[in-house]
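Handoff note, outgoing to incoming analyst
You'll be picking up this chain. Sequence as last confirmed:
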Amino acid sequence: MEYQIKDKVALNKVTHSVRAAQAVLQYSVGAMVDFPDQTLITAAPETWSETQRIYDDRFAKALGVDYFALPTKISYSRFPEWYFCPKCRKFEPIGKWITEYQKRTKQKSLEFDPYMTKHMQCMDCHQDLVVARIVTVCEHGHINDFPWVKWVHKQSKKPICGNPSLSFKTGASGTEGLEGLSISCSCGAFTTLKGAFEKDCFEKLDKDAEEEIFRCEGGHPHKHIKEKCICYPRTVQRGSSSVYFPVLYSSLVIPPYADKLNARIEKSGTFADCEATLSKLPDMRVMILEMHFSKWVGEIAQEIGAPRASVEAVLRRKWLDESDTEIDVTSVKYRAEEYEALNGEISTPSGSLGDFSREGIRKELFQDKLPHIKAVSLIDKVRVVNALIGFSRINPVSGKDDDGFVHIKEPETRWYPAYEVRGEGIFIEFEQSDIDAWITENPLIVERTKKINDNYANSFIGQNHPRTITPKLVLLHTISHLLIKQLSFECGYSIANLSERLYCADASDGKEMAGIFIYTASGDSEGTLGGLVRQGKPDAFPRIFKKAITGAKTCSNDPVCIFSKGQGRESLNLAACHACALLPETCCEERNSFLDRGLIVGTFDNYDLGFYKDLLSTHTAVTVTSKVPFNINGEYTKRDIYDILGVPKEIQGGNWDTGYNRYNGDYFIFANIATQGRTGHDYSNSLDGNLVHWTAKATTNLQQPQVQELIKPQGSVYFFYRDDNLKPWIFAGKVVPEKVYDTAPVQIVWRLYND
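Most recent structure output, in case you need it:
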């Protein structure tokens, strides 16, 4: 499609530029960009002046294009069109401002700036014009200027005059809200913006007037077109997040598409000429290839100095292999190819790869330290292509079949805007049998996941894209988030520069997968500093993994977080909040949904839910292990304990006599069993094998810092008991928390262990 563009005006490259990644993400086609002097909307890719081609054959075939392109010179359209002068308050569309500018400006100035792009000023006041702060959007992806003229006249119950001239004023106090924003017309019509943001305001106006003038105008300013639409639009702030939701897909470049020969062919001048020929005549593609394929193979082979047979194999795959056409990039089949490359199922010849390099870690080096993990692979080099295929407004969508999805390109355009990052990553594959056993042995796991499923089914996206959220998905996704948070402290990359890819499917889906890939998504030199892969080595990764898991045991927002029945976007998380498990949305594949650390570490009232409950116990025992100065079942008076520990006389007594006290980083608990304490309280403390049922002080609650230190100790916790106030204390041993109950007072089940 040829867009009817009257003229193109060059903008200042310093003040009117965005980063390449931004041009594909938040500021891409159909999105508004607030520049210092004006607001513009990114135009359709067909209008862009210059692009840099990006190739990923597997990804391109799946999306039905020939290649991808990184924008280097982007075109913009003027939108919104309404501007006002902050001094005289005149409020007009940009066309009228330009007309007045062209009439009153000298010819030399017009030659320099014919469309008032460099000096957007009121001709009378010489003040910089200010763009309207609100627009209208509809569920079909249209965006239009707010109907200023219609609004002021219909609200005033006056007919629209022949030559409206509007003024826009703001309240003097700044506290009047929408009532302080007024619009008036030269004909006497006057109103405010009160009620403009109500969802059905335009429909009500039409109903009251018994006409239809406020329906959506069907604007696609990025294409310079308007199409018929029957919706009633909604008023939104220009900078509102609901104005633009990009739909992006990403893909790993994997063997054989990542080999060095593939890259050499794509960078050759002859290949570029061949691609240009094929792009110009898409309908004759098959015929052209039949005529010229052999010749082109020879020319490219000669240019890059490679064997003809090898070049032919690559070009045949690129141009003639149609087996993977229109595969859904979110499908199990597509992800399975990446999964097999990451875990080493796809063998790659040594030294042949340019954009993909894998090193498998021998299982025996980490098996004893990392339970439930089948394999760890270090991906030294990886290339990721991120492509924009469309967008939506008001509500986010997942794909091109959703209502409200807007394609960013025309059908005949054979490319999508994209950017690529080169980086490194760690791939972790989990034991599927261990996950299955965990789910089978505890029915409460499925019941807990059902809460997320119910919330998802009632959500907007769930109604449009029904799916079953499995415990395995929640497990893998939450571990991924916990690992990313911990790795950001260790590897030198910020959290925003780390991303995840989840591989979760069952045999019934076509491929059994249980893995997570954490990789860098930064644009520095070759995309990698080596810091992430280094943390995947056997001498570092077990420690990092354990830290990530144990750190999830408590959250600063507990107990609210751990007992949550739905939080986050549309209540699609359980025990997961910004303090413990959420990441920047650029890191996450699922928009920070389907997270629950309760399935990782258990909850305060059900420790057995946790997939890694055993790791928690082991890790706690290791970290608090030290030489015990007391004998198990030995009898000690308080004086004996003071002497053994070397407690200064001035701090003896006090908290030592009230149930528990902290000294030199360790905690010491003194509990009466089957008898009341000296305070007169009887909390029915008891010993049950290696478990101790214990109740804290009467005034305690789970949010108190001292209680949090007890259940997540930095040192050791020593437990003493007696059944008679006149008898000495008996040392039962060191303890770690097994279960914690959010009661008043707090109740804890301790587990005894001996070094």
